[in-house]
Amino acid sequence: MTFGTTPSPRNVSSVDLGDADLTSRINDGMQKVEKLLVDELSVGSEFVAEKVLHLAKAGGKRFRPMMTLLASEFGERPGSDNVVKAATVVEMVHLATLYHDDVMDEADMRRGVESANSRWGNSVAILAGDILLSHTSRLMSQLDTDTVRHFSETFGKLVTGQMRETIGPEGSDPVEHYMKVIEEKTGVLIASAGYLGSKHSGAPDEYVDALYNIGGAIGIIFQIIDDVIDIFSETKDSGKTPGTDLREGVFTLPVLYALEDDTEVGDELRGLLTGPLHDDADVERALALLGQTDGKARSMEVVRHYMSIVEDEITRLPQIPATDALRMLARYTIDRVG
Questions:
Q1: Which domain holds residue 265?
Q2: CB atoms within 10 A of CB 305
Q3: Which of 76, 100, 152, 228 yields a CA-CA distance of 20 to 30 A from 199?
Q4: Integer Cα distance of 181 and 174 in angstroms
Q5: What CATH number should be reported for the domain holding residue 65?
Q6: Is residue 8 in a domain?
């Protein structure tokens, strides 16, 4: 995407939310978010802007801004300038975490392009993430102190989740540890999207609380489904190489449940999964064994639990097109498993 041009479809997909007027408003809002994102990140020295725009230009789902805009439908000022700023803030924070995550994970690729740390080195990638946070702070200062307070708490949870994941369970229950990590690393920022979108559109406090909870639950669903897809989906269906987490030595929910298997399959898995898998044959064997356990079924039970939370919280909201769209988003996330 060239500076100053209309964002490409790779960055902002045209979404169909089941209602023509709602879809038009959300797509218009997404275009405004994309423009503000590029304009804000283009401020400053050119050599800095090049780095901070690297991942923004690579595209992405922009799920968090869309959640912000949807949540704003429950207030008197849907899609207002402040809502657009809030949506941009959420995406900027997300982008900042990606720069830092790639350094910690030593990732080579992100969103189909060379990662910043691979292209410019770890120090530049970390500083690019830091600059993104400075842009975020400037935008938040144009909103209100409640937004600043909220994001100080949100970012604290994000960092806590990353640190928790880095340190590991340390003798605690691995499943409980995993759930806490994804709540802090993924759920909290989508929860913030629900909170800020509704808050800055003037929604009643009850709706704001419900949308915060809905966002958090959808975030957890999204992460578990991604982890299930990594293990159980074919590349032709998901576009991803199965077993990526296994190669990195990351044991996600379906794997953790599978490791509890008390049969010979579980015994072989526990012997095989002692760390990262470097051999393709070992990855293939692990994937085959995982398919013989109840890891996927138990993970989907957890997903259904969080879907029930979404449904319960939705009953606190008025019945408008955005309500149906929220249900559709949560269900679509689950349907990706196939």
A1: 204-338
A2: 12
A3: 100
A4: 10
A5: 1.10.600.10
A6: no
